[in-house]
Amino acid sequence: xxxxxxxxxxxxxxxxxxxxxxxxxxxxxxxxxxxxxxxxxxxxxxxxxxxxxxxxxxxxxxxxxxxxxxxxxxxxxxxxxxxxxxxxxxxxxxxxxxxxxxxxxxxxxxxxxxxxxxxxxxxxxxxxxxxxxxxxxxxxxxxxxxxxxxxxxxxxxxxxxxxxxxxxxxxxxxxxxxxxxxxxxxxxxxxxxxxxxxxxxxxxxxxxxxxxxxxxxxxxxxxxxxxxxxxxxxxxxxxxxxxxxxxxxxxxxxxxxxxxxxxxxxxxxxxxxxxxxxxxxxxxxxxxxxxxxxxxxxxxxxxxxxxxxxxxxxxxxxxxxx
Length: 322
Prior knowledge:
By secondary structure, the chain is an alpha/beta fold. It has two domains: 199 residues, NAD(P)-binding Rossmann-like Domain (Rossmann fold); 96 residues, UDP-galactose 4-epimerase, domain 1. Helix content is 40%, strand content 18%. The strands form four sheets. A seven-stranded parallel β-sheet has the order 3-2-1-4-5-6-11, with helices on both faces. Helix 1 links the parallel strand 1 and strand 2. The longest helix has 22 residues.
């Protein structure tokens, strides 16, 4: 099987690349402005080509040249906080880029399954009585990133309805793990390791600790995406969410319990967002019923892997890459 990972040098894409190669598939990945370290994709760098999905000629070249059986559409501006500072770039990449990918598939005359990375950010604020949120809930995003992902999903479903491009949309809830940057777990574990290394004062600065998040390990997410490529229904939308929520305050304590030096905690107003969903927790029953997926990696193992990853990256004694 020929597998194309658009966004192979991103966090999730790198895991999908490794897993597809290990499974014996013919694999090609694309890269533009990698969000992981070079060493994290050095094992498959010979299978990666440059492609900026904002430019149609580049998506045409990749898709027509490779003619994939499965496409994982992960290329995106994927940071909600950054979307406040760069809304135009976010919309340009995530919306017009998605349209370019689909147009390239349509005119190429191939029939791949396209698994589209959508987001829980599409839901916005959800009332307590509607949590865990189901796929049928109205979409009311709170930031430009969430808006861009609503448009991404609508484009995917439109190409299925009108052109028969087999699109399966994955609304991905909070996912973390080694190699991740830009989320609370990644930032927190990196800061703790810098404190351990003596590079920072023994104070962990945190934003809003009152919110609640369901957390999925990236390896469980990769498994869910693979199952959707194999068993997902075209034209359907699936939540991929952790099975329980954690208050950010609880995650902070789990990380501090694994730190090698004493650390105090302070709230940093600069880390607070203009708006922030109180609870992000999805109902994954549709995904489970269709594919049999289950969450297997415990949050404690995920956080330990992240600490060990940063200890290896920063050269802290006793650490190693996950």
